[in-house]
């Protein structure tokens, strides 16, 4: 099968878009922190089953960084599901796909071996222009929702940066499990606090547990399985194709999200927002390809 990496990445993007659409519908009933719990608990069961069948093979020694990766990944997931349930799917997906811009900046300042030339800095600048065009004052979307989207991109970038270092010391399943286990524990704490704290200003990280009923159990399970599908197809794509090409194809998630969001009732992005999306896509593609060509 030709272009397997591209096909795997398209499947990953489609899984992510469908997972987001299901989360958006479920978000009308369940708080976003509960969606984080179900998304992680399903994946955690699969990871533990995999470890039981095939023990971990790793050097270890960077437990602090492993824990930090789990925390950053959990914050990223909190902001993702908060955005999914509060703003359009296309805008949420675009914020997520802006992470290469922040990854390039963090890599420049935090690692000695990665430097950006003038063209790459120009691409970073274009990406920020795109973010500002999406971030523009909009009476339909409160600024805290946009801030959550921005944090989603930032913490996704920080998570990827930590993974680069952790892969030298840990089995990939350990890295994924640290993220999922932290997410499960954090979301349980959030829902316990939600029994006493009802101030909506904290709904980003606190929510009261709502017991799923009937078919809702099927949808939360499917959401968790699709999340696992995203990780599996991502891994297969990176194993079959260059990271730069996979990164370019990953922007298809914005198109899928826009289609599903429109079906679910999201308003189509206006001209300025679409221009911002295009700027971020061009910026991310350029950065991904140039980093791959080094």
Commentary on this structure:
By secondary structure, this protein is mostly helical. The protein is 75% helix and 0% strand. The chain is built from twelve helices and no strands. It has helices at residues 4-26, 32-53, 63-86, 89-97, 99-110, 118-135, 143-166, 172-193, 216-240, 243-249, 252-263, 271-293. Helix 1 (4-26) packs antiparallel against helix 9 (216-240), helix 1 (4-26) runs parallel beside helix 11 (252-263) and helix 2 packs antiparallel against helix 8. The two termini are 28 Å apart. The mean pLDDT is 83.
Task: Provide key terms for this protein.
294 residues, mainly alpha, globular
Q: What topology does this entry show?
A:
Layout: H1 4-26, H2 32-53, H3 63-86, H4 89-97, H5 99-110, H6 118-135, H7 143-166, H8 172-193, H9 216-240, H10 243-249, H11 252-263, H12 271-293
CA-CA gap between termini: 28 Å
Helix/strand/pairing category: mainly alpha
Radius of gyration (CA) equals 19 Å
Give the number of helices.
12
State the order of secondary-structure elements, H for helix, E for strand.
HHHHHHHHHHHH
pLDDT averaged over residues = 83
Helix content: over 70%
The biggest beta sheet is recorded as: none
Q: Percent of residues in beta strands?
A: under 5%
Residue ranges: pLDDT <50 for 5 or more in a row? none
Question: Count of DSSP E strands?
Answer: 0
Shape annotation: globular
Structure in a nutshell:
With 294 residues, the chain is an all-alpha fold. It has helices spanning 4-26, 32-53, 63-86, 89-97, 99-110, 118-135, 143-166, 172-193, 216-240, 243-249, 252-263, 271-293.
């Amino acid at each position: 099968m030709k272009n397997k990496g591209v096909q795997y990445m398209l499947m990953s993007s489609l899984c992510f878009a469908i997972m987001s659409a299901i989360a958006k519908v479920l978000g009308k009933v369940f708080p976003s922190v509960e969606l984080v719990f179900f998304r992680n608990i399903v994946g955690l069961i699969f990871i533990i089953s995999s470890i039981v069948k095939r023990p971990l093979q790793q050097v270890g020694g960077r437990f602090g960084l492993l824990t930090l990766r789990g925390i950053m990944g959990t914050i990223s997931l909190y902001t993702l599901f908060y955005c999914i349930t509060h703003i359009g799917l296309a805008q949420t997906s675009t914020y997520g796909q802006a992470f290469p811009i922040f990854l390039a900046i963090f890599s420049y300042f935090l690692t000695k071996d990665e430097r950006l030339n003038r063209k790459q800095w120009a691409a970073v600048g274009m990406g920020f222009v795109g973010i500002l065009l999406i971030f523009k004052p909009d009476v339909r979307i409160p600024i805290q929702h946009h801030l959550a989207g921005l944090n989603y991109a930032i913490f996704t970038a920080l998570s990827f940066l930590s993974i680069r270092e952790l892969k030298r010391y840990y089995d990939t399943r350990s890295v994924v499990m640290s993220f999922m286990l932290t997410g499960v524990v954090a979301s349980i704490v959030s829902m316990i606090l939600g029994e006493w704290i009802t101030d909506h200003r904290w709904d980003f990280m606190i929510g009261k547990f709502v017991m799923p009923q009937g078919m809702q159990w099927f949808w939360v399970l499917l959401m968790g399985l699709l999340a696992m599908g995203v990780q599996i197809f991502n891994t297969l794509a990176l194993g079959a194709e260059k990271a730069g090409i996979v990164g370019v194809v990953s922007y298809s998630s914005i198109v899928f999200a826009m289609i599903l969001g429109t079906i679910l009732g999201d308003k189509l992005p206006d001209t300025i927002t679409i221009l911002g999306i295009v700027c971020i896509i061009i910026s991310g593609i350029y950065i991904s390809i140039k980093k791959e060509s080094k």
